[in-house]
Design brief:
By secondary structure, the chain is α/β, with parallel strands linked by helices. Helices cover 38% and strands 20% of the residues. The strands form 2 sheets. Strands 1, 2, 3, 4, 6, 7, 8, 9 and 11 form a 9-stranded mixed sheet that branches.
Length: 305
């Protein structure tokens, strides 16, 4: 009887010790993990840098991340798209280290960030040309900025009004959370005039991705769309653009962006919450290196150096 009681007590004591050990292990893991919804600290070894935003930049950001993994295996980059607005919102909410944007941060976004104690810092990491594209069956090969504005605002609705065939024009655009959409609205539809309130025609089809626009143009000879030059495949037709009637029509390229002759070109940005530190600072410094800027050119964007 005594032996039986001793065995039971021994088993209970052992289970209590094991539970205590497990509890200590859980406490240790929780204390060492980053707070929920917060990016991992960029000063730790083996850091994960959270990078989110512009769909225009997502392929470039993924290529950079893959290459940087070879340069610095201690750093892992998590890259996702969703649009410039989504990336900037994530930065303001403190859930990413770097926000990618194909447009500058808006005043209202900046105000919201400051109310949360965040001071967004802008980094120009590449440049891009916005190509206006049509189906190769479309005979139109050149347009002025005013004509494109009139097409997208609904003033011109038939290709014969722009030197083409008697066919209805189908306008394609990115969705409103896209930085490319915002840039195209301000630079092309409104011709860079801040007082101009021109809007996209209600007949414009809003598509969620660059691939959606490309696929639709492939299938529809009446369609017109726009996209970052690095995303335009060779089987689609790129329109030469003139700033004004009577001026030269220019095709987008690295050369015409750098010499400022192509009229629809922009900077591409990365934003950080304050001046970058640690691994994030090192990564942004590498992005401006020749190694990283060579990738910019390979993907059809324009290097900043």
């Amino acid at each position: 009887m005594f032996i039986l009681v001793w065995l039971v007590l021994s088993a209970i004591i052992w289970r209590m010790k094991r539970a205590a050990i497990c509890l200590l292990a859980i406490v240790f893991l929780v204390s060492c993990s980053s707070p929920a919804g917060q990016p991992v600290s960029s000063t730790q070894p083996g850091v994960i840098i959270q990078n989110k935003g512009s769909d225009t930049m997502v392929n470039l950001a993924l290529a950079w991340a893959e290459r940087y993994q070879q340069v610095n295996p201690q750093v892992n980059l998590s890259v996702t798209g969703g649009g410039s607005g989504t990336g900037i919102a994530a930065l303001i909410n403190g859930t990413v280290d770097i926000a990618n944007a194909s447009r500058q941060i808006k005043p209202e976004e900046l105000d919201e960030a400051k109310t949360k104690g965040i001071d967004p810092v802008e980094h120009v990491v590449a440049r891009d040309a916005i190509a206006v594209i049509v189906n190769p069956e479309n005979p139109v090969s050149q347009l002025t900025l005013q004509q494109i504005s009139d097409i997208y605002s609904g003033k011109i609705t038939n290709w014969k009004e722009a030197g083409g065939q008697d066919r209805p024009i189908v306008c394609l655009s990115r969705e409103t959370n896209s930085g490319t959409h915002v840039y195209f609205l301000e630079t092309v539809l409104r011709l860079g005039d801040k007082k101009n309130k021109t809007l996209f025609s209600t007949e414009t089809l809003l598509l969620p991705s660059s691939e959606g626009i490309i696929n639709e143009i492939r299938l529809n000879p009446n369609a017109i769309g726009y996209d970052g030059l690095g995303y335009v495949p060779k089987d689609l037709k790129v329109i030469a653009i003139s700033k004004k009637a009577g001026e030269s029509y220019i095709l987008p390229s690295i050369t015409t962006v750098n010499d400022n002759t192509y009229p629809i070109a922009r900077d591409l940005y990365m934003y950080t919450a304050g001046q970058p530190q640690g691994a994030v600072a090192a990564y942004l410094e590498w992005i401006l290196s020749k190694d990283a800027q060579d990738i910019v050119a390979q993907l059809g964007f324009v290097p900043v150096k």
